[in-house]
Specification:
Blueprint (H helix, E strand, L loop, with lengths): L1 H26 L3 H5 L2 H17 L6 H14 L6 E3 L1 H9 L10 E4 L7 E5 L4 H4 L7 E5 L2 E2 L5 H7 L8 E7 L2 E7 L9 E4 L7 E4 L6 H9 L10 E4 L8 H11 L2 E8 L5 E6 L10 E5 L6 H11 L3 E5 L7 E7 L5 E11 L14 E2 L7 H9 L6
Parallel strand pairs: 9-10, 10-13, 13-14, 14-17
Antiparallel strand pairs: 1-16, 2-3, 4-5, 4-6, 6-7, 8-9, 11-12, 11-16, 15-16
Helix pairs in contact: 1-3, 1-4, 9-10
């Protein structure tokens, strides 16, 4: 059995290399000529030939190729990945109409199980007792080890409300849980008052029409209250970078707020040139380890321009431009095509944010966030 597994791994590795050598001629010109010698190509061809004619079993080519695609794409970085047909359908739908969700927010690196970085309050996952720091080893009896972050996150979602089975690794214990799925939010944002503030604006996701909803939610309250307006980005892991730029522009006007670094060092600038709707409103921004993507960009820019005080936990740094490429069989690739830098040049991708006021990992209650937000600064 062990020998058979080793052979299967070798087949997947060889096919992955074969696909890479075929693709790099188109997308990475010059690599073959400089890095792959004719002798190496002959060796690869010989290995493929031996597997084809001497391996004891005839493997399903479709499954072998899918595994190779995953291995190649998922090893690029934390955000890139291969999506099968089902995942592609979910990927397309989640921006148009929200899918049923568990309330689990994941972060995953290649070769590791996805880490639970956040759990939405009162969600099905919260009611089942899942916690930040847990790992998911299987989702619906499928191992997550070879999944990308995108694939594992989409596997937790569904168009219908059918429950999902997860195996949870927590310290020295293993838990098998069945978690319900539901529509978690009525919209991209929600707002409620809090003593000592101009209210807490909870941003659930940064897809349109988020900014329009924010204007409607906070506009009537800002002149009748004192203290900072709280932008709560905890557990906000999805969104659109253009919507993030528009959100920044509500509170900040600047010719340059940062840039996206593309291939070969090309820089695409981001600006907030329009007049601000809420120029003089003091801000406090809440983040945790489940604050990812466009929400990180908003928090980072407002912090760097000293427009807001950042309260919470350090973030992972998952701010990037992702491009989707459909494949002929209905599957697809999500590839990182650019990484976000603050105006100072600080790269957020892979680095993340450091709060001005840091909380303990085990105490992320709203009461604690609020207490730290309203506490007077201490002298060093």
């Amino acid at each position: 059995m062990f020998t058979q597994r080793v052979r299967i791994v070798l087949i997947t590795a060889v096919v992955t290399l074969s696909i890479f050598f075929l693709l790099e001629r188109r997308f990475l010109p010059g690599v073959t000529a400089k890095g792959i010698s004719p002798k190496g190509q002959e060796l690869l061809a010989r290995v493929v030939q031996l597997i084809k004619y001497d391996y004891l079993e005839e493997k399903d080519p479709a499954k072998t190729m899918e595994g190779a695609f995953k291995g190649l794409a998922n090893s690029l970085d934390a955000l890139s990945g291969y999506l099968d047909k089902d995942a592609v359908a979910k990927y397309a739908q989640q921006k148009e109409s929200r899918l049923n969700e568990t309330g689990i927010v994941l972060f995953k690196r290649a070769g590791m199980f996805p880490l639970v970085t956040g759990v939405v309050e009162n969600s099905p996952a919260d009611k089942k007792g899942l916690k930040a720091g847990d790992y998911l080893s299987t989702i619906d009896d499928r191992t997550t080890l070879l999944m990308s972050q995108m694939e594992s996150s989409l596997a937790l979602k569904a168009k219908d409300a059918a429950p999902v089975k997860v195996r949870v690794l927590r310290e020295n214990s293993t838990l098998d849980l069945t978690v319900e799925r539901t529509k978690l939010f009525n919209g991209p944002v929600s707002y409620h008052g809090a003593e000592g503030t101009r209210g807490i604006l909870k941003v659930h996701y940064l897809f349109p029409p988020c900014v329009g909803e924010i204007k409607k939610a906070i506009g009537p309250h800002l002149k009748t209250s004192k203290g900072p307006l709280v932008l709560d980005f905890t557990n906000c892991a999805e969104g659109d970078l253009e919507e993030a730029r528009k959100l920044i522009n509500l509170f900040l006007k600047a010719d340059a707020i940062g840039f996206m670094e593309k291939k070969a060092g090309a820089k695409v600038p981001f600006a907030c040139a329009d007049a601000t709707a809420f120029k003089d409103i003091p801000l406090s921004v809440w983040v945790n380890q489940a604050t990812m993507g466009p929400a990180e960009a908003v928090a980072g820019v407002l912090q760097e321009f000293k427009r807001a005080k950042l309260v919470g936990l350090p973030t992972f740094g998952a701010v990037a431009q992702l491009d989707f490429f459909p494949l002929a069989d209905g599957s697809g690739l999500v590839l990182t095509s650019g990484v976000f830098h603050l105006n100072s040049g600080t790269k957020l991708f892979g680095e993340g944010l450091k709060p001005d006021i840091t909380l303990e990992v085990g105490d992320q209650s709203q009461a604690t966030f609020l207490k730290k937000t309203l506490s007077p600064p201490t002298n060093p």
